[in-house]
Amino acid sequence: MDICLWGLGGRIVVPEDPGYNEARQGYNRAIQHYPLIINYCRNKEDVAKAVNWARRYRIPLRIRSGGHNYEGYSNGSGTLVVDISEMHGLSLDEEGGFLTLEGGVTNRQVYEFVSARGYPFAGGTCPTVGVSGYATGGGWGLSCRYLGLGCDSLEEIELVNGEGRLIKANRRRNPELFWACRGAGGGNFGVIVSMVFRLPPKTDNVTLIEIDYLQATTERQEIFLATWQQWLKEADPRITLISRIYNSANDGLAMLVRGIFYGEADEAKVLMEPFTGLEGAEYSFQYLPFLEAVTIIGSNYPDSEKFQSVSRFVLRNFNGEEIAELVKLIGQRPPGSLFAGLSMYALGGKVREMGRDQTAFFYRQADYIIWLETIWEENRFAVANRSWINRRFPALASVTTGSYVNFPYSRLPNYLEEYYGNHAALLKEIKKKYDPCNIFTFPQGLKSRGRKQSKPAVLTDLEAEETKAQPADDRTYRRFRYVKDHAGAGR
Ligand SMILES: Cc1cc2nc3c(=O)[nH]c(=O)nc-3n(C[C@H](O)[C@H](O)[C@H](O)COP(=O)(O)OP(=O)(O)OC[C@H]3O[C@@H](n4cnc5c(N)ncnc54)[C@H](O)[C@@H]3O)c2cc1C
Predict the structure, then answer these.
(1) By residue range, what is the domain housing residue 39?
(2) Does residue 122 sit in the same domain as residue 56?
(3) Which pLDDT score, from 0 to 100, does residue 3 have?
(4) From the CA of 69, how far away is ligand 1's center (Å)?
(5) What pTM, to 2 d.p., does this model score?
(6) Same domain, 72 and 96
(7) Closest Cα to atom 2 of ligand 1
(8) HEC-encoded secondary structure of 125-169
(9) Does ligand 1 lie within 6 Å of residue 123's CB atom?
(10) What's the pLDDT at 450?
């Protein structure tokens, strides 16, 4: 297919280029897309040119920052990928209390930048996730019960709209758009080229909490889940935890807890007694600088994985029978799966203090997010792993409510209602107002017109070929499991 690149700025990568195969990859390598052009924009002008170009040539456009969307929605076969990862400027206004960052900045870049000046940041766990993708979907992180969701400290965004024009949104200018960009997820309204966050109070050290339970049993996983939901009811808002029950090729049945406490280790130990008292607990409480804590958490992520997952919100306690059913979900891994897990991401605290309608993030009242996943390596197992999730979805959905847009699932029925609850209708209106020509689309996007997005036909043969050809031996699944050999680790 001949395409005219005239009118685009920045750096351009097309299928003929040697770097194309790497450049088209996102974090989830189970998803393979073949874009027509990847356009690395260096500034707002390049972004505006890309949007104008896509409109002129009627080429579907995708916005990519960190490339971590679980379902690969920042990419698409036959599309122009507007990649803003090279736009990663940061600046601090300490007097005013604001942090400004460009749209391509990652969690790691923010953490390093603000920590050097004594501040924490309500970012996510994975260092290479893009902050604009993260915060527009709400943004859960290990500081959220203390500092709020990532989007809660957002003060302003600057976005290139479907006409290629730069617009600002804050509480006074374009307030509906600003509301929508705090919870509706990225990719819907335009390319966010910069964001302003309110700075949190300076923090010296935090306590990093790590607990592992190896050689567990189904029964111990059930006790763990019961402990988790009980603990969360009364939990100190200075602690945020992620916990996980899992079944892996290496460990068999096991559990873990990771967390950050904005306070000293001795106090954290007391607050965590319900967990450290469980059979088989190996734990470590380290009082260290915020940057070190998030760096240790982040070091557990590989560069990429192949996985399928589905997320749900939990709004009530489960009874014993329901807990047993949940644990059963991961009792047997699908063929080729190296890791099957059910993770719990604590909400409450500061997240719940914000009114449900103050931002587009609908599930403020949820106790936690629950996330079912399976990870595999060899492509021949992809179908089995995907249908494993699909078969378990009804059981999980029957005891939970709605899904987290930052942890999307492509086979979700009624995805708009699931992601946005009662906010869906208003979000559709905002989409019509700010993107009336539907320039910004992806399979689970908001649509300003009724027409369904169909997958572009171009390059599908190539796609099939490449899927077969992917290497099977890249052992890249998460190490998010062991208490490392820290001094002071206890049993
Ligand atoms: C390993 C891993 C760990 C994660 N951990 C967490 C976590 O701790 N907490 C959490 O909340 N989430 C987490 N996530 C999910 C992550 O926050 C979302 O996938 C997020 O949307 C990724 O943003 P990105 O920029 O990296 O991804 P991308 O794939 O580049 O973008 C994600 C979506 O946002 C859109 N988008 C990106 N940038 C912009 C922009 N500048 N303007 C407009 N639209 C944009 C894209 O089009 C796409 O629809 C994790 C994901 C992975 C893979």
Answers:
(1) 11-85+426-469
(2) no
(3) 75
(4) 5
(5) 0.93
(6) no
(7) 126
(8) CCCCCEHHHHHHCCCCCCCHHHHCCHHHHEEEEEEECCCCCEEEE
(9) no
(10) 65
